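Feature request disguised as a bug report, sorry. It would help if multi-protein outputs had a clear separator. Right now it looks like this:
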Amino acid sequence: MQKIIRIGTRDSQLALWQANKVSKELAELGYESVLVPIKSTGDIVLDKPLYELGITGIFTKNLDIAMLNGDIDIAVHSLKDVPTSLPEGIVQAAVLKRGNYNDVIILKGNEEFFGEPEGLIATGSLRRRAMWLNRYPTHKVENLRGNVNTRLQKLEDSETWNGAVFAAAGLERLGIMPEGAIDLPWMISAPAQGAIMIAALEKDDYVLDACEQLNHHETKVCVGVEREFLRLLEGGCTAPIGALAYVDARTEEVNFKGVLLSKDGSKKIRVAKTAKLGSHKFLAKDCADYIINRGGKELMKDDEEAEAKIATVYSTKKLSELQKETLSSSIGVKDSDFIKMRFNRIPAKVMKTQHENVVITSQNGVEAILNSFTKDEINFKNIYCVGRRTKKLIENRIGKVTHVAKNALKLAEYIAKETEIKKVSYFCSDVRLDVLPTYLQAHEITVNEVEAYKTMINPVKMDADISGVLFYSPSGIESYLEENSTERVAFCIGETTATEARKHFNKVEVANMPDVESVLKLVNTYYSK
């Protein structure tokens, strides 16, 4: 029986349009598919381990998680929203033929304000803001967020805006391009703007073969150059960057133009180069080097220092540029990974005898087991775990879960009080909380610990100007304490992490939801008081 490809998509109107397009193209090739809308961040509870797989993008993260958990087979994205580094195990399976890559302005009145000093336009894009102010330095730009329909309605309701800037592709795909929309060819688009990308699991050959047939080679080449240019320039900084590549059919050349601006639009460094198609491997690097050699890094550094900061915080896990943009512009942010993980090679003899009762407290434990053994090689009778996401992963990849608890203590209490178990096998990290084994041993239950993966600390000594630290696990706190003091505010992803933080910090704040975006919102709220 042919596999039905489950297509994961955000549930916005534009995202559903794009997913339906992929579904139709797959159907034309004889593949059956079904759409699986994935709810927003607030509807998905994220456990610590999946963050260690490198999931970063605000608009792609939930789909990445659903794919890694086996809920969907592919994810459809606007490629400009996808981080330049994909999570471990996920690959770019295809890029569809590109749509309109231009930006357009939707006017409230006529075009006369272009030549007037008091123009007021709206956009949520840092790039569009900078490019507009570079061309019209006396104008003002106000923030505009939301999906396409929401932004159009906000423009309609505004009594002060002269217009708002949109990506042409989204308006065209939804069939809602207003009459009188003006193309902005001078505004270099965002890298990969107008392109639809399909992501899939690296190990799923059936899906990869299907998606490969949807790939548009010319588009793949062009967006590849643009995204590499972005990656080479970013360097951890949030900066207005535009990039556009296209193939000239007459000359068979890849034409590229890119731009880096200061956030206020007062400074701009442009580059334009060509390379023969097939010999374009270093085109992005050559263009990025051109920008850097003409003061690009200094421009970004000066820009960052010029902004008045009411506080600077440090994230103990790398953040994407989109995640950083969710913080108030008055809050500075630095980041690095304080925790790194490595799966151990579990000896084959571990699986030779049946494990009567197995305890797994994280999704990393599941992934570590599967890194050493196939499902058929795993010989577990009863599996006890922590967290519904861990339970789902186990049941998708290994087998039925006997009991799931909210945390390690609750699980230990259940095993000790509700079962007759006298011995458990605990698949864990070399660094973990002692709550579960200590409780079980106190109730005369033998705990056979199997070190399935290593949690390696990677601390960084922070500068004195850091007033708050973002923590995502007790291990992150342990790593932090190796090099740093406890005089700062600890912003914690959940109560387990907060419990550990309270042992050391006087000021501890806990996010409403256990995900990175909620921690960032917590930081915004704390410093706006």
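(second protein starts here, but nothing in the output says so)
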Amino acid sequence: MKKTNLWLPLWIALGIAAGIFIGYIFAPMLLRTTKPKSQLLGEENKIDEIFHYIDKAYVDTVNVDGLIERAIPTILSGLDPHSSYITAEEIQRSGDMLNGHFSGIGVEFIIYEDTVAVIRIIPNGPSEAVGILPGDRIVTVNDSLFAGTKLTNQRVLKTLRGVTGSTVKLGLKRDGQEFSVNVTRADVPVESVNAAYKLADNVAYIKISQFGSTTYNEFINAAAELKMQGCKAFIIDLQQNGGGYLDAPRQLANEFLSADELIYYTEGRAYKRKDVYADGRGTCKGDQLVVLLDEASASASEVFSGAMQDNDRALIVGRRSFGKGLVQQPFRFKDGSEMRLTIARYHTPSGRCVQKNYEIGNNDAYNQDLINRFMRGEFDSQDSIKIDNLPLFHTVYGNRPVYGDEGIMPDVFVPRDTTGQNSYYIKIVNSGVLREFTFIYCEKNREKMKTFKTWQEAAGFLATQPLAAELADYAHEKGIYRRPKLIAESKVLLQTQIEALILRNTYGEKAFYPVFQRDDVLINKALNLIKEGKATTESIRNSSYK
């Protein structure tokens, strides 16, 4: 009896050890028998194995799909800086902006005193259909309070946008009276041609904010109307245009080039070289052309401007562009999410690729590039642009030198205009006081603004008003104390922006840009180049912009 008790702990220990050994040997075998094969490679790989083991053997229950969602961006971050993953929720929230619309209720708003206040109604949109007016406050959404310090622009957008055909109940407050309306969300148009107007004499100005599926039609309609007004020269403004669909700049370039002139070509490891040519049916082939760029002009903007520069068709005026020469193709998944994978590089007619340098998997340094440019003074001095080590190419007809990598270099450099931008001005803008003031002005003078037959009449009236001084009074009440010297320095800039914002709130984009840009240094430089005849094809090909 005593001997049995002596050996019992040993037998138990051996049994446990055997169990562990058996589990160690056989558990992976059991798991491997059901492991899926990689759909891509046709055999097992670590990614499949990791998620399979987690799903079958991890100590706690986990959401494997959620892990995969978080893992995909990490995987893509090991590629180039522009391959990306967009969740289904993000796509639904942002809408299909490049296709010229998003799904929402069709209002522009401001958060004023912890409440959503409607600034402007999008014409022919859902809110206009149910009678929502500028100045209305949105106080409840689906019978829940929608106000307070936690309101943010992002939260408002996420709440008001939604699936086309869905309905949202809004509680509104107008002139002290509260009422509610049901708004059925619908596709709200998003224009990519934000401004198109006759600038002076025979010169047209066209602002393009992105390259989407509707850009070409918008441009053609605008150009036709401007040509009817006698315009024979164009300033196309691509500042802050981050790009979009690759076909849109092709269509736009086709309007300015002759038959069989190369627009661009693309090439990638799995994609053979594809050349894209003009067909000669463009309507603007004989017009003078200036293209405006800055450091935020990227991708499709660089495709168009590169085609114009390399074919000696336009003068590029402004500052060095962003430098994105990679082509992304969207791959849509069943759940509505999307991977945008870089599949090729595009090249301008001279053969250059404008993609700036990047290190695989090191997006931080890439994202820091614009800040580095600013810090070394590139936005203010052309001499700060280093071209010594860049590959050299030449334009097709004029044999002018152009450089690969690092974006599109302008033919005519124009530094950023900082006139009036002092510490007082920056505080006024960043605090939101400027937008608040213009909103309040529109609230108080809504009936007065309705008496003008055109926005031009309204602009003439506003120019006589001491708006900059009134803004300074309002800002002082908000805690931004008067700085007489700085206010005097910023007065013209503030007056211009106040007038432009009031007109935008009342009449839309068509009234905003002509006033906002009336003293724009870059536009005035482009205008002078056209007046001097330096933007004709013949002049460019024989020019000294080399």
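Even a blank line would do. Unrelated, but nice: Confidence is low (pLDDT under 50) at residues 20-33.
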